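Practice problem: Anthranilate phosphoribosyltransferase
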Amino acid sequence: MDDFKPFIAKVATGAALSREEARDAFDTILSGEVTNAQSAAFLMALRVRGETIDEIAGAVGAMRGKMLPVKAPPEAIDIVGTGGDSSGSYNVSTLASIITAACGVPVAKHGNRAASSRSGAADVLTALGVKVGLDSAGTERCIREAGVGFMFAPTHHASMRHVAPVRTELGTRTIFNLLGPLSNPAGVKRQLIGAFSETWLEPMVKVLASLGSTRVWAVHGSDGLDEITTTGPTRVVSLENGRIESFSISPSDVGIAPARPEDLRGGEPEQNAAALNAVLAGEKTAFRDIAAFNAAAALLVAGVASDLKDGFARASAALDSGKAKATLDALVKASNA
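Answer key — structure tokens:
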């Protein structure tokens, strides 16, 4: 515990930690070797000053060093949000993951139970009949047989239990909100990541670039969603071939009419599961539009689609043909095997 005090003292002065110092500090926290008071002081000092790229990268390094890894194909992608947007929207990235897998791109989805909404990825998948909390072999079986596997954060990042009480007691964002999406247990190199704030788009992409990611879109909707939205424009920071670019996209880019925020509002896991099943059964809803739009971006990041329109057409075809429904059915079966 005394060994941790210099880290608190340094960030309390406003000084930044090097990547190595940050990794050491978070390694100590995730090993359960500090008190809750020390963790809280350290996390809030970082938050108030503002976390640097090196500090985030060092923390991700510590997380990845302690995680239970999963083997996935090299072309696998993750579609995930930071959460914390307080929107209570449908489980967009979950449905987008199913659609993307139905288009032939392996998906290694990392997620958790609800944080700020009523239904997180794990909650809605459970309501759909998918068994969550599988070990690495179980997730690898799902990816192999269904094209998509779900990695439950508490299973793969068990060391997070050491900071869970502190995060709950603080009740406000800390660096750990960013670390989950950056610490995919399958080590995917392609990601579509949603952020709760536009401020974090570029830092997240820079961290992923420094850790070996090859193609990334980090997105934030103008309505606050940590996904590509359909109510208006979405800000995107992309990484491709080592180049980072910033631009905006809109629902009109794929030929869909803007949605109203209330059209995207979900509910309890069972309600969201019913809405998701309705889309897979062919219902044309705002949920279908936003999920297909996000899948279109994922297909572009994966290198399968030539542009967003092509990606949207592929996503729509996967829904209309029943391939997306078959993918969910295969995931339910493989996860319960």
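Discussion: Strands lie at 77-81, 107-111, 148-152, 190-194, 215-221, 234-240, 243-249. Students who identified this feature from the tokens alone can consider the problem solved.
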